[in-house]
Amino acid sequence: MNEILNMSMNEMAEADFDCSCGRHHSLPIKKIAIGKGVLKELPGVAAEFKGKQVYMISDNNTWKAAGEKAHAFLVNDGFKVKSHMFETGNEILIPDEAVMGRVLMEMPLDTALIVSVGSGTLNDMGKFLSSRTGVPYIIVCTAPSMDGYVANGAPLICGGRKISFVATLAYGVVGDTDVMKDAPMHMIHAGLGDVLGKLTALTDWSLAVEMIDEYRCDTCVKLVEKALKRCIDNAAALKERNEEAILYLIEALTLTGVTMAIVGVSRPASGSEHLLSHYWEMDFITRNKYPELHGVKVGIATPIVAEIYEILGADIPEATRKLCPKRAFVEELLNSAGAMISPKEVGIERELFYRSLLNANAVRNRYSVFQYAKDIGRLEEVTQKITERIYGK
Ligand SMILES: [Zn+2]
Ligand SMILES: [Zn+2]
């Protein structure tokens, strides 16, 4: 039981076990290959589809980062591959109706496997296409920028709004640290931000267990904590693109995805810090302002949530209080890697900031420290204090 605790990341594919939390967990992902030089293992990961039609999607940046090599590995191994590369120049690819339509039109009729090469956007496009066509997909990761490689949600732009569609989990994940260590530093910072967000996500989960008796899987908590620790201990080395630090980062991101998939809730990965980040993002999108990378916002939101816990102090039940990181600790970690810390740096004005703290609990129906602070009548006081610390009196 719980042998998953001793498994390496790559051994977790198709994990299937009775857990000490009383539930049976299984992970439908068939292949996970994460590590140095694993891109060349792609033909092995895709072996089941050899001789059938493979459809590869990328953009000009991800093609250069890994697509070209991935394509060559497959073709040299005898795979039949059609590649479609979106030429976006220096612009980023926006997954809207036109782009999703194009990706579908380019798809060969007899496609048996989709291979998507990229990070956030191309991963979301690949999994959406896969979910609607029933054709499995493999994601070749190009940046350790968020935890969505193992997740079934696909946020796309539809009718000018960002909509989180339910899609499907990947058949396989290939994450080569030789590729990811060369990702733009901003994306590496985003990945770190998304990982640090797990500190407050786990704290919120504990609060929900104590306050409203929510289900929690302690095996999953232990898995995330273990990966978090390794990533945190090496965070400062991300600045130098240290390969081990990149490996621990992508492992932590992938592992939180794995735990989400096996417990069927996003609690191991997202808490109040994600509510804040989503609030800011929705506000930016409504105003046609660039919303910044997901993980960058989560990174900025995390010390703020830690501060809420600090201010509430003795009002927080003891077991949860002990779990929460200190604001200074999270800020120091972000700082050591060169990542942004202040909401001001991403253009969040005082008014938006103030409003976001008061209303983040309405982003989704889920118990959080915002709800708790509201219930005990201290949300306005906390909001005032933090706003004044950051923006002045
Ligand atoms: Zn996230
Ligand atoms: Zn469990």
From TrEMBL:
Coiled coil ranges = none
- InterPro entries, per this entry? G1PDH, Glycerol_DH
- TM spans, by residue? none
- Molecular functions per Gene Ontology: metal ion binding; oxidoreductase activity, acting on CH-OH group of donors
Show the Gene3D superfamilies listed in the entry. 3.40.50.1970, Dehydroquinate synthase-like - alpha domain
GO biological process assignments: phospholipid biosynthetic process
Keyword Oxidoreductase tagged? yes
Upper taxonomic lineage: Bacteria, Bacillati, Bacillota, Clostridia, Eubacteriales
Tell me which domain of life the UniProt entry assigns to the organism this sequence originates from. Answer: Bacteria
Q: Which Pfam families match?
A: Fe-ADH_2 (PF13685)
Protein name per UniProt: 3-dehydroquinate synthase
- Keywords in alphabetical order: Cytoplasm, Lipid biosynthesis, Lipid metabolism, Metal-binding, NAD, NADP, Oxidoreductase, Phospholipid biosynthesis, Phospholipid metabolism
